[in-house]
């Protein structure tokens, strides 16, 4: 199989020789080195982790809505963590911690990038596989290991890590401060190191594949926006994830070897700890140096997917292709210099607060450009509401709603009163939680036929979309107002404070909305898993899209294309081009076959082609209709 | 094939369940009806609603119901197809209309949220800088709300108006640099204004010019799992030195009583501050990170072990005035912990009272000192000759702050 990685992309007549490989169950489904299978592995693991994390969120939503009610069923499943049917405060914190960790890292980073980068990069740029299939396989198995280790912390006596998903020391460093900082935290850190290793192997692979293995004609400015987004996401990950590892290693040292990187002047009860000279702020700098790029690692693939889905289903070229790419690049660069906006009120020098406020609000500009471009793409389109399209539109809506509240939080002065309140919770659940998961779901619905060769049921998809879309807004919109009333996040119960009592009914409402939203996912899970086996067989190009992946046969084969890899002649967004019979022209169709629809700028200043086109027009088009 | 088989099995099952449910319901109803004639004997469904099985069954029933509808739709569409009639349901229209409906209902929902939940949020800021923050918040809120409403109207209206009808071709419109420029520059300009405002406000909050005639009242806050300790400076107006290594069962804060400034430092159970006088908070933490959050005054700053941070503010509304303004006789200011700090995180609170200068002076006289007889012995201090804290002058005497406070002052402070 290593020949796959070494092959010449262009001059292969046939790839039949690869049919001889004897594939066992183990090499085909488990230790697979085929990018399509690895994508599926990432996706299904991601879905399972998402279901787990969603379940955790329902557990703590139950606690928030009915802090004084006993649920005996909880004790049945959770034992001493929910004695008498009520979740304990430290387990509540473990729930929010693991919910956040799983969602951010395992679902929206690995589940999203891992799935779609793996699936689409080779298929859309015209490569037979990833640059290094073996590294790709390792990437999945490190990720799987990280998931297993993270989940194993539910089966130890002291419970999972519970210092919040940002695991700020000293809380995360001292087992005496909270039970979860004992073995559970160690497992969290090990899991995270494995996860970062997985991300790096994936990222390096994505970047080298995009740079080196594009098919003939596929120059960078002919790549679909999905590929641009995955490419820039991978670069972000490669540059920022190692910083998290550095932070994690120092935290392991502090926890296990008595160093003082993050610890100083600490007294637990009356016991004076020997640590001196460290600073908890250091962890925050290291963590957020990854942490902020991380939210763009989460959202950029989703934006890339929705660009593609919106364009295909509007039957229109994406508006401002170049502007979309430049704004992605802008986001990529700027995301490295905004991390301090998570730290406005940590006591860090206020001068830095001012600087980070400026950079943070600048990053809103490329995001705004992207949003307006989506709207312009929809304008005068011919919109087909496939489930993927619905989710892509949902993403745009969430991206606007959540993005706008970012303008409040990015403003250091306003952040003083909003920091660590429910306003923040509402903000990021809309802009990176809901928006990114909608991008992921759009991708699943759109490329399901490519992944499994079968179709999903679109009516169940509609049901799934509408229930999820509505319940997500019902859950997160009211939470803004809790934040504006000064209710801090990660509170076990609102019962201790007089002023929070009035929000209890809102909490009940939000929990019911969350339960409905969670149950709506059953429609998706059924649709997804049932149709893998029983779905209607997919046609080769079900959405009539232009990109290369739809030129591959429905039945997967190792190496993707049976014969030569197709050559690319045009950009991927020639939808509804005037003068063309069909409303889409695949990237593989040369301009010589579409003389009636060619436009002057198609030739990028190639005078010879322009001459041929002019001659053809002089012959075929009546003088009055001439373009120029 | 197998799908059909499955559904039909399910259909039968569903019908059976529905029938049973219906039968038992009507049976209940009959029984209830019969009972009502003689004695009122309502059927107690309370315990049933509490069982997990009830909800699981209800959900399964719902799933079956959806499966039946799905099946019916499929049959309908297949018959239309078999009869060569146009497609029964145009899902593009359905979804387009749903988006339009979502827009209308959603706009009303947003209005409802703004007016109902919007009234439940914090009252007006009770501090000088808080007023600036509120003002900026309102400006940002107006701008973002306009953008929020406008873009959503555009988004869902486009979804409605440009849905596929099979009669049109989309308009090929790949780019327009003028438009691109407009929606880069306009947001950039708006954001520049917001950044400038934010930047100036931020500076005015953290870089205070000290007025020698109106020196702030220093109050030290120490956070620990899961309580707050408040230390008033006493007569000299200076919060004395402390050292975490001195912490023990008696000396909870580790106050170094070799420093004379500590001798008159006072304890307090609540934070009482005089209105319209600057207050300088000295924030420290004993164990893990906490966050000192005083929402009514728009104040938040983390308390960090090993680092002292400061926040200066001037309260402008007394508790009594706020009671009148909010029309809530039970209103109380408070501060709480906003940074996850352990299992008791959700309980850390202290009451704050803003009072007149006279009331403050009367209150502060009653507060005890940190220095107790036990501590006097520990630090070899004379046990009897205690300087009476009752003789406290107003805390804003012109005395200089101690080195403990000075060392960590901001480099840029003017």
Automatic annotation (TrEMBL), chain A:
Family affiliation: Belongs to the heme-copper respiratory oxidase family.
Subcellular location: Membrane
Topology class, membrane: Multi-pass membrane protein
TM spans (from-to): 42-62, 91-113, 134-156, 185-207, 227-253, 286-306, 318-339, 351-376, 388-410, 422-448, 460-483, 503-529
Single GO molecular function: heme binding
Pfam family, any one: COX1
GO CC field: membrane
Sequence ranges assigned to domain Cytochrome oxidase subunit I profile in this UniProt record: 25-593
InterPro entries in UniProt: Cyt_c_oxase-like_su1_dom, Cyt_c_oxase-like_su1_sf, Cyt_C_Oxase_1, Cyt_c_Oxase_su1_BS
Gene Ontology process terms (BP): aerobic respiration; electron transport coupled proton transport; respiratory electron transport chain
Basic and acidic residues bias: start-end ranges: 7-20, 601-618
Protein name, as recorded: Cytochrome c oxidase subunit 1
Chief place where the protein resides: membrane
Family annotation (SUPFAM superfamilies): Cytochrome c oxidase subunit I-like
Stretches for region Disordered: 1-20, 596-628
Key words, A-Z: Electron transport, Heme, Iron, Membrane, Metal-binding, Respiratory chain, Transmembrane, Transmembrane helix, Transport
TrEMBL record, chain B:
Cofactor(s) the protein needs: Cu cation
Membrane topology: Multi-pass membrane protein
Enzyme Commission number, as recorded: 7.1.1.9
GO molecular function, one term: copper ion binding
Residue span, Cytochrome oxidase subunit II transmembrane region profile domain: 114-209
Locations listed in the record: Cell membrane; Membrane
Keywords: Copper, Electron transport, Membrane, Metal-binding, Respiratory chain, Signal, Translocase, Transmembrane, Transmembrane helix, Transport
Keyword Membrane: yes
Catalytic activity: 4 Fe(II)-[cytochrome c] + O2 + 8 H(+)(in) = 4 Fe(III)-[cytochrome c] + 2 H2O + 4 H(+)(out)
GO cellular component, one term: plasma membrane
Top-level EC class: translocase
Record-linked Pfam families: COX2, COX2_TM
UniProt domain Cytochrome oxidase subunit II copper A binding: residue ranges: 214-366
Coiled coil segments of this chain: none
InterPro entries per UniProt: CcO_II, CcO_II-like_C, Cupredoxin, Cyt_c_oxidase_su2_TM_dom, Cyt_c_oxidase_su2_TM_sf
Cofactor binding notes: Binds a copper A center.
Keyword Nucleotide-binding part of the UniProt annotation: no
Signal peptide annotation: 1-29
Transmembrane segments: 52-73, 94-112, 139-162, 182-202
Function: Subunits I and II form the functional core of the enzyme complex. Electrons originating in cytochrome c are transferred via heme a and Cu(A) to the binuclear center formed by heme a3 and Cu(B).
PANTHER family: CYTOCHROME C OXIDASE SUBUNIT 2, CYTOCHROME C OXIDASE, SUBUNIT II
Family designation: Belongs to the cytochrome c oxidase subunit 2 family.
Protein name in UniProt: Cytochrome c oxidase subunit 2
Originating organism: Pedobacter caeni
Lineage of producing organism: Bacteria, Pseudomonadati, Bacteroidota, Sphingobacteriia, Sphingobacteriales
